[in-house]
Amino acid sequence: MGMPSILLVTKSQKVSQTFERNLRTFFDSRIDVFTLSQWQEMNENLQDKIGLILLSTRKLLDSLPDVLADIPVLIARRNIEMTRLPQLMEVSTGTKCLLVANDMITAEDSVEFLRRLGFQHLDFVPYGPEIEMSVTELKKIDLAITHGWPEFVPDHFNRVIDLHNRPIDLTTIFDIAQLFNLSIEKAHYYTADFFRDFVQLGRNLAISVNNEKQLKTKLESILNAVHEGIIGIDKHGYITFFNEDAGKILHLRTEHCINKRFQEIIPDFQVEAVFESREEISDQLLEMRNLYLLVTKIPLMLDGQFLGVVVTFQDVTKVQRIEQEIRKKSTHLGLTAKYQFDNIIGMSQAITSTKEVAVKVSTSDYTVLITGENGTGKEIFAQAIHQNSSRKDMPFVPVNFAGLTESLAESELFGYEEGSFTGAKKGGKIGLFELAHNGTIFLDEIGDAPLSIQAALLRVLQERQVMRVGGNRVIPINVRVIAATNRNLMEMVQKGMFREDLYYRLNVLPLRIPALNERREDILILIEHFLQKKNTNLILSSEVKNSLLEYNWPGNIRELENFVNYLTVIVEGEVELQHIPERIKNGQVGQTQSSVETELAFPQEDGGEIEQILFLLMRNGSLSDYEDILANLLLCSKRQQRIGRGVLNSMLAKPLTEARIRNRLAILNRSGCISVGQKKQQGTQITLLGIQVLQRIKNLNVIEQAFQNRI
Fold first, then answer.
1. How far apart are alpha carbons 601 and 616 in whole angstroms?
2. Separation of alpha carbons 257 and 220, rounded Å
3. Cα angle at 399 between 511 and 644, to 5 degrees?
4. DSSP-assigned letters across all residues of 576-609
5. 675 in helix, strand or coil?
6. Is the pTM of this model over 0.70?
């Protein structure tokens, strides 16, 4: 018997070449191998020499010539090149794959083989050139897989995995060897090569898994180091990553969130919109669980495939607090309170009971309205309340409306954006309410706030958010408000000078500070305290003590401290009656002996009001300015005329700048010397009190001139 011959019948030359290469690996030159086309070209009657016909597929049986009908036929069982599998392993679960072959039988066989290899997680669709599929159907399939038939892949696919031609399986080689009674000397090499591929595949997978673990560990460390919440969600809606900051912000434990559907854990984050649109949603402000969160949702796409969503978010209050700290450190604003309840000196029943109420008030977070005369220590109480509250480590921002013009009030309180008005700083400016975020804002002299600002304040107190001048976004704030005034706000409400709704917003926790004449037993204690602050040892005679206790102290503690400062400059040793001013010596305002002091005294019935006004005017400019303004207003009042600011300024002996005339009129209006119309074009008019103050200023000028002449 001659050398065995095998006739290869395949549908392509590529498959024939693969089969011949496989057969030579085992049988070397002990067999002859012909393809059907080669056999037909030989023009010889070789069918008697052919011992076996090896078919690549059963479908080719019908194509065999009749002369070969009596020759044994074997349909090749086929394997797969293991080294080609890693690229298939990278395909994610549930991916729809078009498996392309040169005919449907081969395609279906390939699908079955891949499933048996463990690729059941992929959704295979067998496909041969005889199958017609619409473009719509093809677009529903993610990628194409083929065993050496890329030319049959439809044009629609950009992603193709070619696993190359499938080699002959070892069982088919054994069948051929048995048929021709041939030994398979190199079968162990083939087996070794087969397992070598498995070992290499396993090693590559182990390296890949190890690298993936290392990468995952590094990635988790990086994402946990980022100071914002990060949540990873796969395309099926399950949470696969939940970093430490996400747990801290939402007060959730990571292990309770992983592998849960996002609707269970973060239902308020509106992630469904990204699953539907596959588009990013950036910087969305969400309010949930008493938190304001700035949320960004990003779809994960790879090679056009949707893999899931990454959600990042920050606590807005934390961001604002960081911004606040940066601004405080960079500008050295020093927005802190320094006084505590221990700094409030006194043992009288009046001050003790007031402190007790203030301590209780400090433990709540409601708005406080502090009332009391000038100089009673309203700001000290405000600072002490802040220092005894849960906000003590946060800013304490004082605002004095007495020194805040209407034109600047809004920009100072609420801030402004860059370019919002002429002279605006580059980059804009943060407002006082923003600076006070998480802390306390102290609205001193709230009774002097213009009506327009009162409306804005009411909105802030109601909404707890501000909008900068020239801005288009609201900024949530968390502040406690403490307001203070020496004026009768209810009376102002009745006169239409103060908003009723704002009054009730402020007057949640009222706190009245007693005047010094209501706590006379504290006068000597306070004097001793101020002397210790000055490190001065002065001794007060009993007559001096009696005079001080009898005096009315219209300027309250501020006046008392100024008096002590006066003593430390004038007196050494013991303080006698001759060392103190006559108005204090006699225990009443207005009873004096010196001719000059007589002129400075005021009628008892005014309760020192004019003296306080004069003191206020001298602190805020030249008395000559106020005298000129009041004199011209008095002249106009005799003609029963109200006068506008511009006309008034033109009448002055020395016209003032616009800012200065506004300031002077605001102070006169606050002290009650003039009345300013609430509407435009109503003008300004002097009051009876203003006429009295004008007369006192004139008297002072006469006395001063006489005194100078005497010198």
1. 16
2. 16
3. 105
4. -GGGS-HHHHTSSTT---SHHHHHH---GGGTTH
5. strand
6. no
